[in-house]
Design a protein that fits this description.
Number of domains: 1
CATH class: Mainly Alpha
Number of strands: 0
Shape: elongated
CATH topology: Serine Threonine Protein Phosphatase 5, Tetratricopeptide repeat
CATH architecture: Alpha Horseshoe
CATH superfamily: Tetratricopeptide repeat domain
């Protein structure tokens, strides 16, 4: 009987955490949509730390783009990878773009970027498909790079 009680208490705590992660994410997303990144940040962190994979992905993007925080490629990659590991496939596109461009000091790794972008593009992500096209054609930031060649971090 004690085991059943402990199991029920654990399930209740897990459910409460899940509900809070959704609430915090929704509140953060509203603030983020209004470009109020500074107020969105603590809620986004809370939701991400409670396991919300969408919050993890958006938190990674915020670190990548310096929205409410200074740009930090290390934290961007960490949160984007956690979102992907949690099953949030949309994070692959952002992580692929980060590895392709070196934004926020992320180490440029075109083979890894290509893998991530191809996966996202195969699932209909048009931005990933466009970035692959730019890489292949040597357009923009990719001018002068051979297909799949790596560059060092800035």
């Amino acid at each position: 009987m004690l085991n059943l009680f402990n199991t029920l208490v654990s399930l209740n705590a897990a459910l409460a955490g899940k509900i809070r992660s959704i609430t915090a994410y929704d509140e953060a997303l509203t603030l983020y949509s209004d470009k109020n990144y500074g107020k969105a940040l603590p809620l986004m962190i809370e939701a991400a730390e409670l396991g919300n994979v969408q919050a993890m992905s958006l938190l990674g993007s915020m670190h990548l783009l310096g929205q409410g925080v200074r740009e930090d490629g290390r934290l961007a990659v960490l949160w984007l990878q956690r979102a992907m590991d949690g099953g949030y496939e949309s994070a692959a596109s952002v992580l692929g773009m980060a590895h392709a461009t070196g934004k926020a000091g992320v180490i440029i790794d075109l083979p890894k970027a290509r893998m991530l972008l191809e996966d996202a593009a195969s699932k209909g992500d048009t931005q990933s498909a466009r970035m692959l096209e730019m890489i292949d054609k040597g357009e923009g930031t990719f001018a002068g790079l051979g297909k799949g060649r790596q560059r060092n971090s800035r």
